């Protein structure tokens, strides 16, 4: 990329009548990103100086010139079986459509990367897999309705007999295959990250669009990815699956065992993927949204929890630890709209004695009550604090930030994201495509 930029600039200078300011901006960008100068004085020094007041604040400082990479991360089931995250996304999508004036926009238009674990992985797949019309197969509201109607079939929550363990979750497979068809990781609109735990290697396994585009050995059908990340070992046991070319075999169980909160994994993916995110250098270049699914009901806690409850408690604890770690990593940026965590707890145990056994419609009501709670933020070295805004109000503010970044890209000089795309002729080849505004 450096070589391309270095040769383009002289061509512009000699063959085109380029406005002086435009040429100087390109020179600044070349100096900043090819030679790493951070001092605004050095950036502005040169043969033709330009007045500092003619530059935007970003160009003066050399920061966030290419904008922020937008990451969506969705936790595993939680006490709401994924309904809280689904309801949050439905509300966010409605806000984005209302504020933008475009009723056709979806969640996938406003995020560059999506990560999800367990039922969060299923949501990410529904919202970011490409349909026949080139748009996502589900809107957020459709994904919420799908989860309400099918959660008990695709998220088993009780031990099963040997018959079911041998023949696997047939109903879940049929439902997911009907939704995703033959779509694979390559068919997602944006980079997608979905974890599971591989019993054959005793290690986490991360399904990744970027890896799938590199080799068919890491490309899997989306329906099987969803089954793998939500395979409850206590209910159905492990799920055996193979890659598209049959060369990679994994024995998968629930992604929540590996990483119930995949936020840290998604951030690491972006910061280390310079091919697709060339100008993302640190957390100040990110806008991260992390959606929880509710802490356990207080009425479910006792002194002798079952093995399944131990797993759930461990997952929730790990999610909270990831939230704390990410908040510390963002530091001062976490208070400047760079990191938002939506999570809820403390439901009225008398009103909702057992949310896990509630039907879908009742869980939607529980999720709405959760969104009405005041937002809880992790504070650097100070644990957590309750802020004045509710989760719903935070989502409203987030919609404004996402639209602001969305509009900024329309006039941006540099691409924020440069995605690899699967070649339509050969499944293993890739081409480079700059992401458009929508």
Automatic annotation (TrEMBL):
- Return one Gene Ontology term, BP aspect: lipid catabolic process
Q: What class of enzyme is it?
A: hydrolase
Which ranges belong to the motif DGA/G?
254-256
Q: Which keywords fit this entry according to its UniProt record?
A: Hydrolase, Lipid degradation, Lipid metabolism
The PNPLA domain is annotated at 73-267
Pfam families with a match to the protein in the record: Patatin
Q: What's the protein name?
A: Patatin
Domain comment from the record reads as follows: The nitrogen atoms of the two glycine residues in the GGXR motif define the oxyanion hole, and stabilize the oxyanion that forms during the nucleophilic attack by the catalytic serine during substrate cleavage.
Q: Does the keyword Lipid metabolism apply?
A: yes
An example Gene Ontology molecular-function term: hydrolase activity
Q: Does the keyword Lipid metabolism apply?
A: yes
Annotated source species: Tetracentron sinense
Fetch the Gene3D superfamilies from UniProt: Cytosolic phospholipase A2 catalytic domain
Explain the purpose of this protein.
Answer: Lipolytic acyl hydrolase (LAH).
What's the EC number here?
A: 3.1.1.-
């Amino acid at each position: 990329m450096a070589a391309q930029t270095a040769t383009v600039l002289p061509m512009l200078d000699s063959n085109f009548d380029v406005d002086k300011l435009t040429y100087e901006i390109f020179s600044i960008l070349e100096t900043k990103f090819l030679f790493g100068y951070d001092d605004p004085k050095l950036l502005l020094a040169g043969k033709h100086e330009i007045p500092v007041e003619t530059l935007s604040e970003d160009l003066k400082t050399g920061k966030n010139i290419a904008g922020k990479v937008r990451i969506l991360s969705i936790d595993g089931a939680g006490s709401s079986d994924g309904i809280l995250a689904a309801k949050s996304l439905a509300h966010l999508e409605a806000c984005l459509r209302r504020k933008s004036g475009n009723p056709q926009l979806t969640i996938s238009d406003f995020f560059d990367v999506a990560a999800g674990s367990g039922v969060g992985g299923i949501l990410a797949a529904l919202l970011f897999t490409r349909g026949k019309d080139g748009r996502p197969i589900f809107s957020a509201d459709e994904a919420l309705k799908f989860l309400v109607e099918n959660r008990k079939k695709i998220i088993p929550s009780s031990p099963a007999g040997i018959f079911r363990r041998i023949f696997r979750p047939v109903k879940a497979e049929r439902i997911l295959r009907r939704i995703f068809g033959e779509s694979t990781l390559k068919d997602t609109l944006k980079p997608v990250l979905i974890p599971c735990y591989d019993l054959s290697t005793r290690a986490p396994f991360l399904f990744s669009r970027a890896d799938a585009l590199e080799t068919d050995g890491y490309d899997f059908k989306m329906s099987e990815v969803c089954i793998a990340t939500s395979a409850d070992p206590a209910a159905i046991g492990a799920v055996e699956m193979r890659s598209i070319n049959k060369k990679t075999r994994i024995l998968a169980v629930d992604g929540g065992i590996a990483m119930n909160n995949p936020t840290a994994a998604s951030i690491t993916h972006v910061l280390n993927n310079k091919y697709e995110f060339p100008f993302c250098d640190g957390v100040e270049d990110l806008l991260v949204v992390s959606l929880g699914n509710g802490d356990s009901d207080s009425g479910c806690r006792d002194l002798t929890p079952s093995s399944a409850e131990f797993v759930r408690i461990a997952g929730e604890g790990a999610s909270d630890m990831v939230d704390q770690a990410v908040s510390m990593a963002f530091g001062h940026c976490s208070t400047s709209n760079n990191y938002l965590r939506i999570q809820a707890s403390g439901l009225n145990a008398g009103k909702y004695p057992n949310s896990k056994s509630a039907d879908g419609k009742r869980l939607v009501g529980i999720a709405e009550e959760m969104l009405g709670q005041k937002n809880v933020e992790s504070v650097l070295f100070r644990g957590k604090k309750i802020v004045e805004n509710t989760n719903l109000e935070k989502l409203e503010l987030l919609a404004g930030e996402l639209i602001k970044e969305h509009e900024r890209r329309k006039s941006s000089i540099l691409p924020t994201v440069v995605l690899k795309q699967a070649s339509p002729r050969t499944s293993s080849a890739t081409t480079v495509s700059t992401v458009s505004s929508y």
